[in-house]
Amino acid sequence: MIYYSIISEQLSSSDYEKMYMKLSALLPDFRRKKAESIIPAKERAVSALSFVLLCHALYNEYPHRFPARNTAPICKLINFSYDKNGKPYLSVPYDDIFFNISHCHTAIACAVAPFKIGVDIQDIRHPSPAVLKRFPAAMDDMSFSKLWSRYEAYTKLTGEGITKSLASCDYMSEMFIKDSNAGIITSPIFYDASCHTVNDTIRSNTTNNSNTTNSNNTTNSNNIITQKKTAVFLSAAFHNNIQISNSNPPYTQDSLISSDDYMLLNTDDIIYVDLSCLCDIALF
Prior knowledge:
Blueprint: E1 2-6, H1 13-24, H2 29-36, H3 41-61, H4 71-77, E2 80-82, E3 88-90, E4 98-103, E5 107-113, E6 117-123, H5 129-132, H6 141-158, H7 174-179, E7 182-191, E8 203-204, H8 214-226, E9 230-239, E10 243-245, E11 256-258, E12 270-272, H9 275-283
Parallel strand pairs: 1-12, 8-12
Antiparallel strand pairs: 1-5, 2-3, 4-5, 6-9, 7-9, 10-11
Helix pairs in contact: 1-3, 2-3, 3-9
């Protein structure tokens, strides 16, 4: 599943500093040290919130392994290991659970799954002329942000980082995805000035809104763009042709199912978590 929260633009640096001071006491030492190496108050708080969102996702997806809902007990259980490219993984005994974290100026996101995954959340922004030269064709801000989100999600899946040329490797093309045995889902996330998401098909972890049809979501998205609502793009990338378990551990061969004939993730797997509720859960 993929979880995300919208970061309020109405909070001041002092508000973010107070938020971080409350959350920092819950963080494990390795995560607190990383956060405290960040100077701006907002970015420091976002670093802490990203970890809190991870703990929330672990509890929701694996309650049999993380029975406590609030953050502090989970922080005592988990630690990070890193691959040769610096991509973090959960250390033993949770190394069969994969995660990825992303944040931008206006949102944070976390994906948790029983398979390797990369996630990126991206503000709608205007690229510089230097960046645009790397693209095979001219594009508007929405198209650029969507492509860049997919690009980063894929490179975070593989752990390569942003090293490949977009001009020679089009991460939007179906041919590239097929040749790479990869799956990439992308969804625009629209929200209003009060940081309330207004996507019809995005589920809320706090209000349990029911889903509507994709056609309704398309109509709603077009209306929101016309009304100049704020938006971000959220992308997740994963490998196809893998086996995952459809049961709780311990896993057996009979419990493994192949991903050849279906998508491991879709937009129904994206869940919105209100930021204030996330803080309340952490401090509960």
